[in-house]
Design brief:
This protein is 43% helix and 19% strand. By secondary structure, it is α/β, with parallel strands linked by helices. Helix 3 packs parallel to helix 4 and helix 7 packs across helix 8.
Length: 324
């Protein structure tokens, strides 16, 4: 009797283990003519986000999507609620740029539990809590660490002074771009003893807040001669603050950044900024391509990496017309 129970228990355990193995995969996506696609935008308060959303809308018709797009207005809690609403509306697939690494994990896991494959776009989540190939299909985006590193390398190569006094304007606290762009820049710049980061504070990727933070930090560190902003919007805000304080961006202070917006390329052409590393917002066509590959049964790489250009005085003017 005991042996029978043990054998039965072993069989049940084996079945359960098999079920766990199957459920560790992201949900499949059936091939069909049209898809109901969810795109949960985190906010629309800057040109980058607006261009990204437009890219998804422009792609919807070409890719046979019935697109449901939402705007969380900068709230991680609302973004989670937006995803819940999309799940209730029966979307086939979810594209999600998570505002922060940790708060959006429940949304990712709810989508999986509902049988909806999720692709993270332009931002990722904490890899210790949710993994590509298991909880979501893949991350579509840039190498944020490399972006920060490339900005640091340009700064090291082009700074002519003896002592670089750096103020860093960070992106949204807890977001993967802010975390990684800081890591890439800070680690590389620390390898040159000429440079010191005297202050590092969030400007939440916003132009006006970047301006306000720069005004405050300039009072505490009037000798600053380099500003590293995690995005172009904060860089433009910093330029405004510096000019109001009588400083001359591009002459007595070097501005370096990431994104590749039209305003940044114009500022580089005007001599007010030194460099911006591209971080393209045009994810719609890539999302369409990767989704079709997944529906066809292809194994999608965990990280579908976007290659980024670098814009300086030598080439910025050539790309202003195509920028957003």
């Amino acid at each position: 009797m005991n042996r029978t129970l043990l054998l039965a228990s072993a069989a049940i355990f084996g079945f359960a283990a098999s079920a766990v193995t199957v459920s560790a995969e992201p949900p499949p996506l059936a091939q069909k003519e049209r898809y109901k696609v969810g795109f949960s935008q985190m906010e629309s308060n800057n040109p980058w986000r607006i261009a990204e959303t437009k890219s998804f809308h422009d792609t919807a018709e070409k890719c046979n999507w019935d697109l449901i797009a939402t705007d969380a207005a900068g709230s991680a809690a609302k973004q989670v609620a937006d995803v819940d609403s999309m799940i209730a509306q029966g979307i086939d697939v979810l594209f999600l740029p998570p505002r922060e690494e940790k708060p959006l994990i429940p949304a990712v896991k709810k989508a999986k539990a509902a049988g909806i494959p999720t692709f993270l776009v332009d931002r990722s989540v904490d890899p210790n809590s949710a993994k590509a190939g298991e909880d979501f299909v893949a991350f579509l985006g840039s190498d944020f660490v490399d972006q920060g590193r490339r900005v640091a390398e340009w700064t090291i190569e082009n700074f002519k002074g003896e002592k670089g006094v750096i103020v860093e304007l960070e992106g949204t606290t807890g977001s993967s771009p802010a975390n990684d762009r800081k890591k890439g820049f800070d680690e590389r710049i620390a390898q040159d003893p000429r440079f010191t980061i005297v202050a590092s504070q969030t400007g939440d990727f916003a132009r006006d807040l970047g301006r306000q933070v720069m005004e405050t930090l300039l009072q505490a560190h009037p000798d600053v001669n380099i500003v590293y902003a995690h995005n172009d919007e904060m860089a433009i805000g910093a330029i405004q603050a510096l000019e109001l304080a009588g400083r001359k961006p591009g002459e007595d202070v070097t501005i370096v950044s990431i994104d590749g917006t039209r305003d940044a390329l114009q500022a580089i052409s005007d001599g007010k900024m030194g460099v911006t590393v591209e971080s393209s917002p045009f994810f719609g066509p890539l999302a369409c391509d990767v989704m079709k590959r997944y529906a066809a049964g292809e194994k999608i790489e965990p990280w579908v990496q976007v290659k980024d250009r670098i814009f300086t005085k030598e080439n910025a003017a050539d790309h202003i017309a195509e920028a957003y």
